[in-house]
């Protein structure tokens, strides 16, 4: 499950979070330690019964990949967006 | 996943993804240390063909099975003897020992101090969860006083090992301690250990939410990470005799020892040259006999 940037308000996402939902064990490390509070645990379940995180503020993501450093299950990572202006119009699908 | 998404998780190329999800509990910190290890491998540009990872038995011992590197899962406590043999037979290899406190400091405690004394060129990463986790939460030599464990239901009373002090005294050239909260510092410490010749020891304090934290009513893995964040104090070069762990106290982290001392193989060469003189002919470095 990938959440693309939306470019809400005047803030443009500098990074993008990718989540492998089925690997998540809902420890909450990524939600707690994201410096810009991009994530929250969702109410949905994965097939093992855990609540994986979802992106609530995609525009705040800086692509620092601290979520990927913390995740003990290798289920999340963030990448920097190379050209945020060019991609701004492409957001919102999927 | 998404077809639009061309990126991959940086740790993914180092994992045997067919074995995921792993067996580690929710909130366990071992996976986090693997993330830092992968970043250190990328950063220090280690040639993966000359890298070997050895681990013993225990939760952390599973790392050898989950990383897509040349790895070996040895018998209990014998990760360092195996790694020593590997290094002696093929000195070109960069050998990493990745194991837990129960494996390295308890069952393999003797091997640990003697490898440090001999200064064998090994990079030892010790994930310390303060307990024997895989076998059911028995007291380990690293369990701090007053902690409740399955073998000490009324609290432990034995003094615990202060691993950085032990390794400093035994002669390791690089000794650092970080927690699973300090992911970037941990990755940097691992990179520094890769650049170092000699016995490097990195202790990583990690939560065991299922056995240690639950029995001691310390919450889950996330609560422990917050505790690490609040109670950790970075003191580089701190005297290792003062960095012992307590049940709820401060955790001193940082790089404690970084010194240079001839390693085992250079000492061996120097001794033979001294006593045998011209009669000592060094065997040509063997080609990698891995295939």
Put the structure in a nutshell.
With 94 residues, chain A is of the alpha+beta class. Chain A contains three helices and four strands. Chain A has a single domain, classed as Alpha-Beta Plaits.
Lateral strand order in the biggest sheet of chain A: 1-4
CATH architecture of chain A: 2-Layer Sandwich
The outline of chain B comes out as globular
Straight-line N-to-C gap of chain A = 9 Å
Largest sheet of chain A: 2 strands, antiparallel
| Biggest sheet character of chain B | 8 strands, mixed
**What fold name goes in the CATH topology slot of chain A?**
Alpha-Beta Plaits
How much of the polypeptide of chain B forms β-strand, as a percent range? 15-25%
Mean pLDDT over all positions of chain A:
81
Number of strands of chain A: 4
Structure, explained:
The complex is a heterodimer of chains A (94) and B (291). With 94 residues, chain A is an alpha+beta fold. Chain A contains three helices and four strands. Chain A has helices spanning 29-33, 66-70, 84-87; strands at residues 15-19, 39-41, 53-55, 76-80. In chain A, the strands form two sheets. Chain A has a two-stranded antiparallel ribbon. A two-stranded antiparallel ribbon of chain A has the order 2-3. Mean pLDDT of chain A is 81; it is low at 88-94. With 291 residues, chain B is α/β, with parallel strands linked by helices. Chain B has a single domain, classed as 3-Layer(aba) Sandwich (Rossmann fold), CATH 3.40.50.970. Helices cover 34% and strands 16% of the residues of chain B. Chain B has helices at residues 30-44, 63-66, 79-89, 101-107, 109-118, 163-170, 183-195, 209-215, 221-231, 264-276, and strands at 51-55, 70-73, 94-100, 122-128, 174-179, 200-205, 232-234, 251-258. At the A-B interface, helix 1 and helix 2 of A face helix 1, helix 7 and helix 9 of B.
């Amino acid at each position: 499950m990938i959440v693309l940037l939306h470019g809400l308000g005047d803030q443009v996402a500098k990074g993008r979070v990718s989540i492998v939902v089925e690997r998540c064990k809902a420890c909450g490390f990524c939600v707690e330690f994201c410096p810009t509070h991009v994530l929250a645990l969702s109410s949905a379940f994965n097939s093992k019964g855990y609540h994986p995180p979802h992106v609530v503020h995609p525009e705040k993501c800086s692509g620092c990949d601290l979520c990927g450093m913390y995740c003990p299950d290798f289920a999340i990572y963030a990448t920097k967006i190379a050209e945020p202006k060019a991609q701004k119009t492409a957001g919102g699908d999927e | 996943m998404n077809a639009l998404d061309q990126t991959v998780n940086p740790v993914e190329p180092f994992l045997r993804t067919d074995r995921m999800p792993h067996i580690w509990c929710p909130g366990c910190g071992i996976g986090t240390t693997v993330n830092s290890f992968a970043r250190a491998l990328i950063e220090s540009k280690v040639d993966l063909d000359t890298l070997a990872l050895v681990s013993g038995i225990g939760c952390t011992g599973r790392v050898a099975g989950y990383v897509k590197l040349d790895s070996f899962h040895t018998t209990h406590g014998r990760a360092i003897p195996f790694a020593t043999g590997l290094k002696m037979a093929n000195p070109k290899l960069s050998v990493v020992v990745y194991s837990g406190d129960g494996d390295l400091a308890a069952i393999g405690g003797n091997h640990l101090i003697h490898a440090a004394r001999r200064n064998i060129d090994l990079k030892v990463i010790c994930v310390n969860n303060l307990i024997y986790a895989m076998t059911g939460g028995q007291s380990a030599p690293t369990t701090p006083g007053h902690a409740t464990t399955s073998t000490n239901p009324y609290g432990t009373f034995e003094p615990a090992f202060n691993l950085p002090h032990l390794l400093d005294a035994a002669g390791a050239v690089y000794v650092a301690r970080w927690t699973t909260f300090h992911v970037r510092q941990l990755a940097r410490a691992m990179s520094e250990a890769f650049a170092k010749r000699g016995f490097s020891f990195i202790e990583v304090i990690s939560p065991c939410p299922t056995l240690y934290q639950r029995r001691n009513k310390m919450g889950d893995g996330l609560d422990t990470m917050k505790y690490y964040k609040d109670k950790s104090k970075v003191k580089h070069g701190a005297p290792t005799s003062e960095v012992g762990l307590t049940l709820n106290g401060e955790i001193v982290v940082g790089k404690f020892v970084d010194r240079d001392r001839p390693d085992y193989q250079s000492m061996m060469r120097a001794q033979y040259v001294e006593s045998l003189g011209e009669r000592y002919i060094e065997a040509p470095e063997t080609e990698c006999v891995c295939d």
